[in-house]
Design a protein that fits this description.
two-stranded antiparallel ribbon; single chain; alpha+beta; Hypothetical protein af1432; SH3 type barrels; Molybdopterin biosynthesis moea protein, domain 2
């Protein structure tokens, strides 16, 4: 499996992971051979990256902290809650509570220390997938802080529904590519209080404070109340980091995602108003490079991430080329051991010449 950008280059490839709609329906199942019409459909559905099978790197599996089924269930629960709240200004908390239980069970039974979030996401269901990711990230931080299951559930419930108040904000404002006007920003700011008020009627006050405070900043520059440092509940400070990190690392219609390392570097700046001790906890749990990601080393070699190690910045990889970009017999390297190897950047896919060399190699092998 490898992660590739959706486009003409993936025509004829086979899906490695199923593609789901926001309501849980399977749009394309794993094992589907991608035709021109399927690729066009993926683009219409808002997918920018996809997981495809790759004979040269067989056996790679993603270390997402929750299962695909749990993701689908949780995404559907968020979607139903938001749609119901938009229609009737109230919602049934049963679905989100059940989703939180499933997420917690998956994470607590997962033995991996370092995780990478699923890279296959759609623009169209961004709000729902983002909510699930924020929930997962908050739980990962809460675990390190020693939260018990009861406290994790309270944090996770607020995190899963932290953007509930956005049902009152027009999509034209939420998805605006340029800078918001003062009037538009004031409308956006209302979603914190709106979410808090709705959540307060359905769950604990401390869970509702996640919705209220996830835009507060430790330097007092946030909203809605401009709180500082310890004035912000720890849940709010955790959610702030999870919210911004996932937003920065997600493709949007108006901008490409930042690589995880760049996003974490940005959040490390004092001007972002993030709780740096909590940010360092996240940095210890989140892999900078997902399984299946194509990497370019500074020495010119190309490799694919195969597995996470104890070091979030140094995964195991399968090297596929020489320093000049010429295909070589694949061999595995543990970057946590080989600290002298520097990663230059993540590529959208194999370079064209390398892709052609791999195809020739596979043809010779199969004949």
């Amino acid at each position: 499996m490898r992660i590739a950008r959706v486009g003409q280059s993936i025509i004829g490839r086979t899906l490695a992971l199923p593609v789901y709609a926001a309501d849980g329906r399977i749009l394309l199942n794993s094992g589907t051979v991608l035709t021109q019409s399927y690729v066009e459909g993926l683009e219409r559905w808002g997918y920018s990256r996809i997981a495809i099978e790759d004979e040269i790197i067989r056996g790679i599996r993603h270390s997402d902290p929750v299962s695909v089924l749990t993701r689908v269930k949780a995404t559907g629960a968020v979607r139903m809650a938001l749609l119901e709240a938009e229609r009737s200004h109230t919602f049934d908390i049963t679905g989100p509570h059940s989703a939180v239980e499933s997420i917690l069970q998956d994470i607590q039974s997962n033995r991996n220390v370092v995780h990478s979030l699923c890279a296959v996401r759609s623009f169209d269901d961004y709000t729902y997938v983002h909510s699930v990711n924020v929930c997962i990230l908050c739980i990962l931080i809460g675990q390190v802080l020693g939260y018990n299951r009861y406290d994790l559930k309270k944090l996770a419930t607020g995190a899963l529904l932290h953007d509930l108040g956005k049902i009152h904000v027009p999509s034209s404002i939420l998805n605006k590519p340029g800078q918001l006007t003062n009037e538009e920003f004031e409308i956006v700011r209302t979603h914190s209080y709106a979410g808090f008020e709705m959540l307060s009627q359905k769950t604990s006050a401390v869970s509702a404070h996640v919705a209220l405070q996830h835009h507060e900043r430790t330097d007092g520059s946030g909203y809605p109340r401009g709180l500082k440092n310890g004035e912000i509940h720890e849940y709010g400070r955790i959610a702030a980091i999870a919210d911004v990190y996932d937003a920065l690392t997600t493709d949007r219609p108006y901008r490409e995602a930042l690589p995880p390392g760049d996003a974490l570097s940005l959040l490390s700046r004092p001007s972002t108003g993030m709780d740096q001790s909590l940010l360092h906890i996240l940095m210890s749990r989140i892999a900078l490079y997902s399984e299946g990601a194509v990497l370019l080393f500074e020495d010119g070699r190309v490799a694919v991430v195969t597995e996470q190690t104890h070091d979030p910045m140094r995964p195991r990889v399968r090297v596929l080329s020489t320093h000049d970009g010429v295909f070589v017999e694949p061999h595995d390297i543990d970057l946590a051991v080989h600290s002298e190897i520097a990663i230059h950047k993540v590529l959208d896919d194999y370079p064209k010449e390398l892709a052609q060399s791999i195809e020739k190699h596979l043809l010779c092998e199969n004949n």
